[in-house]
Amino acid sequence: MTDLVLLEHEGAIAKVTLNQPAKLNAINNRMWARLREIFGELDADPGLRCVILGGAGDRAFSVGADISEFEENRSTVEQARRYHERTHATMQAIVGCRHPVIAQIRGLCVGGGLELATICDLRICGGSARFGIPVKRLGLVVSHAELAPLIALTGPANALEILLEGKIHGAEDALRMGLVNRIVPDAELEREALASAARIAEGAPLVARWHKKFTRRLLRPEPVSEAELDESFRCFETADFRAGYQAFLAKTNPEFQGR
Known about the structure:
Distance between the termini: 35 Å
Structural class: alpha/beta
């Protein structure tokens, strides 16, 4: 099972790789389950600073759900409900991971693969990247929970263009729509994703976690409570805040401990 999703650590940075390149990193049941386990483990790791999620090989980040399992997973409404519960639980584990998550996108990023990328915090793609959700050809819909992050990134007009036309978009289109943060040459993709993760990792980890949490919260429609507003002041009681401003005054580099 673990061979289908790889987990590596480089200091305070974790790299998670969908490892089914012969099938363009299509995600089967075992991979959904393993992704959920991995992101649960990463969330619980206090020493971690950032996660990079990518796909093995040069052809795809992921083409989404493994269609060869549709007869087993989605041939009835009840099967589809159970499948959604499993995949949504994995998506929530990624969204709920307290550490920033970067999608490193090379080649095809379509269907559920694009849905997976939209729930990451940053998306960096190579020039070869291609994006789309051509589910109109399969006669199925994107559920509310998976559609919401796409709309949040691109707006309703672009989201509907992606879904209604079913077109596969190039990297420049994806940048224009807001699907990705930036494009780099394919040869520089891994280096740039790691450099981005390193920039995140050098900052105060509690601050990164709070910014991720606050941003996700502000995407929800209900008013922010007084208790939630007050949480933004908790940084002033942390050791990292003291280390940060004292290092600034001393013109040295701070050493953050996540406390």
